[in-house]
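Quick note —
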Amino acid sequence: MRVFHGSYTRIDTIDLSKCKPQKDFGRGFYVTKICLHAESWANVIGENHNTKGVVTEFEYTEGSFIESICKIKRFNGYDEEWLDFIVRNRDKKSPDPAHDYDIVEGPVANDKIQHTLRFYLKGNISKEKFLEMLTWHEETHQICFCTLNSLQAIERMDDTPNMDIIALSGPLLEALMLEQNCDEKIASHIFYTSATFVRLSDKTAELYKRPWQEIYEMLKKELKR
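Predicted structure written out below.
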């Protein structure tokens, strides 16, 4: 999925320590699939820093690998569970982090919604009335990458992926599924969390230039330890 981050500067490296707490989905790096919303936010924060806003483009990779290493929560719309989650994360009395998810995806509590949210938190309107008011709200979207682990799922678009590693993964996973008698999700978890994969991902080691059978033998030796 192509996603966008609006800021006052280009994002070269994602540093979670610089992310602020008490946001919708907690402390983390936020992106959206709606480019126009990222551009609008970039303009706002750019003006606040007396500079021109910048939108950095990323690719969010979903699939068995990410699901095997990340705990993911998705909200499909404005509902009671989403509201309770937002309130818990925005509450300064809540622990930081207020949840244990690596990645959280769902609607945004933007400026228009926050105005109504304050009425709800003060008890001026009921939860049912608040959610009813959101029924007619325009579509919003955000993904929060909350942990270092989650950053394996996102890559800046001008960072060239190593296609050799991607090509090697296919036959490796197939062989692992056959030998371990497991499905793709379990095989992905075994492979992508292995020391062998860490070595394979190190471009300087150039392990990706070797035949997949040789790398698979390395993996099998690791699993026997």
